[in-house]
Amino acid sequence: MSARLLVLCGLLFFGSFCFSQYGYEPKHTNSNLGGWDKSNEFNKADVVAVNIDELKAKFLNKTVTPIYISKEFRENSYKNFYKDSQLKKAIKDKTYKGLRSHASNGSGGTMVLYTPNNNYRVLFGKRFKVVDISPIINKRHLANTDDSNYLFKLQNDEFGVVYYKYNSKFKSNVEIEMF
Q1: For residue 165, how many other CB atoms are within 10 A of its CB?
Q2: Residue 115: φ, ψ to 5°
Q3: Which residue range forms the structural domain that includes residue 77?
């Protein structure tokens, strides 16, 4: 009997929760309110949109390499390199994955599971040819913000095709340079 009562209470709770938002009317009267995609953040003076023609003139059919990053900043570097154009499969450094000694004196110490956070060892010093540059339109959250998100299609013999996501809002934060 208690199991039936528990199921009945669960159904009543679920039903009341689902229909509690039905007919919700906002209490504000300001019609100018909108979400983050309606903000004027991308119209500020410090945001300079990069023209795709300028990018193509500078990078297309040229050889590029990932930029040098000093050791203390490598942990957050090279996060914009992907294996697919949908930007779902990030390139990951799997060479140092596994159990590692945590001791600095080499005596074994505590073993910890180490997962590398960056791709610096994998990508630095590699040469890529820029095959294509196109605006990112297949990612709705990026396409709604501004038109300054571009996808570089890079190619070399070792990796094949690699995709680099570039947001020109951060013009100084490009992670590739001419070789």
Answers
A1: 19
A2: -125, 115
A3: 50-178
